[in-house]
Amino acid sequence: MITKLMTELQHVSTYHIDDFKDFMTLKNYSPRTIKTYSQIANQFMVWWQGLPNKPAMNDGIVRQYLLKRFKDGMDWQTVNSDYSAIQKWFKNVLMLDWSLTKLPRPKKDKKLPSILSKEDVVKIIEAAPTFKQQVMLSFIYATGVRLSEAIEMKIEDIDGNRHQVRVNKGKGNKDRLILIPEVLLTLLREYYKKENPEIYLFNGITKGKAYSPRSIQLMMQEAKRRAKINKKGSIHTLRNCYATHHLEGGTDLVFLQEQMGHKNLRTTIRYIGLCVERHKYIKHPIDHLTIAYRNKTA
């Protein structure tokens, strides 16, 4: 009896998740979004099925789930993704009500992203165990691409004549072109001659297969350890460095927004708070005022 019930529950779960995948496919969501949102919906379904007496599926149950996620220590970004995925699933597949009063969207944490100095970036790249890994770290830093975009980058996406790399279906399923310097092109040509990659710019263990994102994350941590850098920083920190160091060098903010693939300029503006070099050129008004103060020793 228990086995039969579990089979039925699994069938219901699979049925609704497959419908959700179909909906997102028809809406032309990126494969990465479809995978992530499906996993979130499935995780919620498994949690719901494990509740005593399996209460009716409604937005009150979602509220309970999201509160649990916060209590379990999940950060804003994770819970916000849960919210977005389950909301789309509820409204477009299950056709259930979604009360904004019961379920206000989580307020975004106003945290500054982690950052490394140019000197630290050099140390990390030099400390990477292999030439291939050095090139990979250099590529991510010099282009500001996301990890998911870097591993999907193909050889045909590099346009040496126009000094550009093409990002296909980045975040939000958007394509974009990124301007790259001659020094990176020279490095990529040397890398291509030595490694002879196939299809993808950075092959994994097997030729013609993409590099594992987990392997890149572990490689970054190993390079940091070798470089004796204890500051907080992940592979995504190189993207933060790309933006911050560009702004410190005087790069136009709107141009940088386009290069990074930000939907909103406000996302790009937050990097200004990380710029150290720009602070040297700030002239405070009080520096040029002559003020006669009363005798402070009296």
Ordered list of secondary-structure elements with their pairings:
Layout: H1 2-26, H2 31-49, H3 59-71, H4 76-94, H5 118-127, H6 131-143, H7 147-151, E1 158-159, E2 164-167, E3 176-179, H8 182-195, H9 213-226, H10 235-248, H11 253-260, H12 265-269
Antiparallel strand pairs: 1-2, 2-3
Give an overview of the whole structure.
Strands 1-2-3 form a three-stranded antiparallel β-sheet. The protein has twelve helices and three strands; from the N terminus they run αααααααβββααααα. Helix 1 runs antiparallel to helix 2, helix 2 packs across helix 4 and helix 5 runs antiparallel to helix 6. The chain folds into two domains: 93 residues, DNA polymerase, domain 1, CATH 1.10.150; 164 residues, Orthogonal Bundle (hpI Integrase, Chain A). Strand 1 and strand 2 form a beta hairpin. The N terminus is likely disordered.
